[in-house]
Amino acid sequence: MAWVFFLKQKSDAATAIQTFIAITKRQFNTRILCFKSDHGGEYTNTEMLRFFHCSGIRHELTPPYSHESNSIPERYNRTIQTMMRAMLLNLDKHLWAEACTTSVYL
Prior knowledge:
Blueprint: H1 13-28, E1 34-37, H2 41-44, H3 46-55, E2 58-61, H4 71-87, H5 96-105
Parallel strand pairs: 1-2
Helix pairs in contact: 4-5
């Protein structure tokens, strides 16, 4: 399964992650036990670290400059981007959000 959240700024990532965790908890009656991310500032700020700690979520960081350790998400992102480019071939580029949502749905 895949979900997509569109952010206007990187600082919106904390809210999107917290919303995603709340959605999965309610809809699927499950808990997120581990959150894996790169060393991006949107994942390692004080707000997110506090949220992970209070929620009992283990935060694992991938090694820096090592795309091999993050191969599945990297490949999935590339697949979505390829599908989006094909959809937007003769269309206006401002429809990229809709193309992304459609790619994830398909």
